[in-house]
Amino acid sequence: MIDCSLLALDYSQIELRVAAHMSKDKTMGEIYQTDGDIHRETASAMFQVPIEEVNDRPQRKAGRTTNFGLIYGISDKGLLEAFQHEGITDFTLMECGDFIQIWEGKYSGYFDWVQEISAEARRTGMVRDMFGRIRWIPELQSSLKYVREAGIRQAVNTPIQSGAGGIIKEAMRQLHPLVKQWQNDYHVVCRPLLQVHDELIFEVEDEYLSIIAPQFHEVMVKAVELTVPVKVECEVGKNWKQLETYSV
């Protein structure tokens, strides 16, 4: 009987990294270039405390929720609801509005890009992602204000979500011949099982795990070059529940 394990390779904060790449926001770029913790950096600004004094909950967790919400244009009410969904009940609607203003000030380059994308979408009726793929947004021509506003959110969301999705698809394309090589040429168990959001999960023969894991990790890191570093986290375990960090 051949012993096998699950190999999970997960793109870390890929949507935020795509946002930093596309917007060319200086602060985001510096954080990622120095391998900083962008959630802790955001929390430090939100709560006006030194970065080394930021606690994990609620501060860093609130910073994480704010980061992922604000790149998609969340409102103060939406941010409050997101906090509550995450079990963070410490903040008021007014405080959420203050957090948004602080975020906009810290990552002002991102909001300049949002304005450019919004203006282009209104002018052309469409947006492009980093691979040149087009999404038409007919909502921008609506006579209803709330429909137009939804169209603007789509205009901002699309380049980021489609860009992140494109990166993982390109990684899958580049991994495919390697998987076939391990299977057909070396007769090693190496099966792609699942894509879960930004994560790819394989079943790999234990004897060859120390070779396959770094090989696949390198492919995913280099699949698409961004202006900020791409980071992929690797985990291994006998089942999904037992996955643990694996050094590559």
Provide a short characterization of the protein structure.
This protein has 248 residues and is α+β, with helices and mostly antiparallel strands.
Describe the protein.
The chain is an alpha+beta fold. Among the domains are: 4-12 and 167-245, Alpha-Beta Plaits; 26-106, no CATH class. It has helices at 14-23, 26-33, 38-47, 56-70, 76-85, 93-106, 108-124, 145-185, 209-222; strands at 4-11, 126-128, 134-136, 190-196, 199-205, 232-237, 244-245. It has a 5-stranded antiparallel beta sheet, with helices on one face. Strands 2-3 form a two-stranded antiparallel sheet.
Number of helices: 9
Low-confidence stretches: none
Q: What proportion of the residues is helical, as a percent range? A: 55-70%
- Please indicate the percent range of residues in DSSP E strands (runs of 2 or more): 5-15%
Task: Let me know the average pLDDT.
Answer: 95
Instruction: Tell me the Rg in angstroms.
Output: 20 Å
The CATH architecture of the domain at 4-12 and 167-245 comes to: 2-Layer Sandwich
Q: What oligomerization state is this entry in? A: single chain
Overall morphology: globular
**Major beta sheet, specifics?**
5 strands, antiparallel
Question: SSE string, helix = H, strand = E?
Answer: EHHHHHHHEEHEEHEE
Q: In the CATH scheme, what's the topology name of the domain at 4-12 and 167-245?
A: Alpha-Beta Plaits
